[in-house]
Automatic annotation (TrEMBL):
Keyword check for Hydrolase: yes
Domain Serine hydrolase: 2-219
Protein name stated in the entry: Serine hydrolase domain-containing protein
Coiled coil: none
Keywords linked to the UniProt accession: Hydrolase
Pfam families: FSH1 (PF03959)
Transmembrane segments: none
GO cellular component, one term: cytoplasm
GO molecular function: hydrolase activity
Length: 229
């Protein structure tokens, strides 16, 4: 059985991501591919959110459901981001529960899954590179110009998004053209960091979610299956 590690998005947890990616999970299960969903290390408070939740009952429901999780605290300023705990958490989990054949990340989890895939061979040399990585609604940590356009990877993270010339992990990107949380141009900027020889991009007409329609997922699943042979 092949094993794949899955990283959820901001204000989610592993259980919710498992439910929201059920279409992909069920198709991969038929191919004897097991998805392991883990929780981010950050426990969010209402003050940590980039938006306002005024409804106390709604926030209490979020906390009681344990979905107030994240990989790092949100900031629009890349200089303020600290992902050390996220990377430590994932690498430790892989060391204890791996090896893994692939990694899947969504949104904030996709930013981390990119870095994990890019650096795992140097951080955990006994593990080696993943056979595939799937990043859904992903983004990189960039500086922006006066028009809010991404112009370069922030200096603090440049090495983490550097793709080695020998990097052979099949890298798949999914993004929605109507994604208001991570606009499509941000995900395309991330995808453009990778050479065409190892990457595939899949665009859907929806928003900030992982599609569950079989007709959309089948070619992606086929690419994952071929990478595991």
């Amino acid at each position: 059985m092949s094993k794949v590690l899955c990283l959820h998005g901001f204000l989610q947890n592993g259980k919710i991501f498992s439910e929201k990616s059920s279409g992909l999970r069920k198709l991969l299960k038929k191919s004897n591919i097991q998805l392991d969903y883990i929780d981010g290390p950050i426990e969010l408070t209402r003050n940590d959110l980039p938006f306002i939740i005024d409804d106390d009952s709604k926030w209490n429901e979020i906390v009681q459901s344990n979905i107030n999780k994240a990989w790092f605290y949100h900031s629009d300023n890349s200089n303020e981001l600290n992902i050390d705990l996220a990377l430590e958490t994932v690498f430790n989990y892989i060391s204890l529960n791996g090896p893994y054949d692939g990694i899947i990340g969504f949104s904030q989890g996709a930013a981390i899954s990119c870095i994990i895939a890019n650096t795992i061979n140097s951080k955990l040399s006994k593990h080696g590179n993943f056979k595939f990585a799937l990043h859904v609604s992903g983004y990189s940590f960039t500086d922006k110009d006066s028009q809010n356009l991404e112009i370069n990877i922030n200096e603090n993270f440049k090495d983490l998004f550097q793709i080695d010339k020998d990097y052979q992990t099949k890298t798949l990107f999914i993004y929605g053209e109507n994604d208001n949380s991570v606009p499509m141009n941000r995900s395309k900027y991330l995808a453009n960091l990778y050479p065409n020889s190892i990457k595939l991009e899949y665009k859907h007409d929806g928003g900030h979610f992982i599609p569950n329609k079989k007709e959309f997922l089948r070619p992606i699943v086929e690419e994952i299956e071929s990478s595991l042979k």
